[in-house]
Amino acid sequence: GIKEWDYSNQNGPSTWVDKFPMAAGSRQSPVNIETGRVETDHEALSSKPLRWKYPATASRAIVNPGYCWRVDTDGDGTYLTGGPLMDDVYKLEQYHCHWGCSDSRGSEHTVDGQAFAGELHLVHWNTTKYKTFAEAAKAPDGLAVLGVFLKAGKAHEELEKIARLLPYVSHKDDNLPINESIDPSKLLPDDNGYWTYLGSLTTPPCNESVTWILFKRYIEVSHHQLNVFRNLRKFPRGEECPCHENHGVVINNFRPPLPLGNRVLRECGS
Ligand code: SG7
Ligand code: ZN
């Protein structure tokens, strides 16, 4: 069937605005982080340190929606608060990943023009102010996404648990319950230094509802683990079609950076 949007030449990021007018807004994501233009905002950000908690059992199911892998979580007992979020408490909804066709591209945000091999996103919603994820997703302070850059290097132990499950969700709409403990906090870097700015979802409908918090430190994942991501299919089981672009595998599922405009990029920690 005809897809509403994807990352192909035909329905890719430059065309999203035709069907999703919010994609043309002035608070869009991702952006390039120009480290020389970042504002250190010690009092506002470090007066309330960023804090999170994810029970080891939070990861409930792994899904292939046809454009990434996603782990749906049980938000109960999870929280993210402090830093730019102040006293509001956000719950973890899901985490997912973006990657390239090679190890030199794949992240959505870039740092001084440099892309990473991938970018992990932990998506949270504001439970202090809103009743459901859907309601929060429409509000300017509704969502908070923690971003982690992935760099090709040594294999990542916690991510390996995900890589081992991906062959079971190789096709679009595949969904597998998770019966082991995959701890989202083990996917974060050891150091808490971060950049933050106000932006949007990086996929349609590109709602301008996200407080972005990007860790400055990357995590390492192996070339092999990235190749497992690159083996996911964009089409459902039983619909094998050799005429798909790139044989129908999910690669380059990132939106290129958009102008920061007059938004402020702040940093906390190193
Ligand atoms: C991924 O990124 C998916 C989407 C997500 C989107 O394509 O994880 O979520 C689902 C349910 O498939 O959209 C609403 C939402 O979370 C955008 O999220 S992102 O801005 O963090 N990349
Ligand atoms: Zn994302």
Features:
binds 3,4-di-O-acetyl-6-O-sulfamoyl-alpha-D-mannopyranose, 11-stranded mixed sheet, 5 helices, 270 residues, binds zinc ion, alpha/beta
Quick description:
With about 270 residues, this protein is α/β, with parallel strands linked by helices.
Explain what you see.
This protein has 270 residues and is an alpha/beta fold. It is 11% helix and 26% strand. It has 5 helices and 15 strands. A hairpin with a 6-residue loop joins strand 4 (59-63) and strand 5. The protein is globular. The structure holds 3,4-di-O-acetyl-6-O-sulfamoyl-alpha-D-mannopyranose (SG7) and zinc ion (ZN). Zinc ion binds next to strand 7. The site of zinc ion has 4 residues, from strand 7.
Integer average pLDDT: 95
The H/E string reads HEEHEEEEEEEHEHEEEEHE
What is the 3D shape? globular
Q: Unreliable runs, pLDDT <50, ≥5 residues?
A: none
> What percentage of residues falls in helices of 4 or more residues?
10-25%
- Spatial separation of the terminal alpha carbons: 47 Å
Structural class: alpha/beta
Number of strands: 15
Quickly count the helices: 5
**Biggest sheet overview:** 11 strands, mixed
Rg calc? 18 Å
What amount of the residues lies in strands? 25-35%
Ions, cofactors and other bound molecules: 3,4-di-O-acetyl-6-O-sulfamoyl-alpha-D-mannopyranose, zinc ion
List the topology elements.
Layout (H helix, E strand, L loop, with lengths): L15 H4 L12 E2 L5 E2 L1 H5 L4 E3 L5 E5 L6 E4 L5 E3 L8 E10 L10 E2 L6 E9 L6 H4 L6 E10 L4 H9 L9 E3 L16 E6 L10 E6 L3 E3 L1 H7 L36 E3 L2
Parallel strand pairs: 1-8, 2-15, 10-13, 10-14
Antiparallel strand pairs: 3-6, 4-5, 4-11, 5-7, 7-9, 9-10, 12-13, 12-15
The structure holds 3,4-di-O-acetyl-6-O-sulfamoyl-alpha-D-mannopyranose and zinc ion (ZN).
3,4-di-O-acetyl-6-O-sulfamoyl-alpha-D-mannopyranose binds next to β7 and β9.
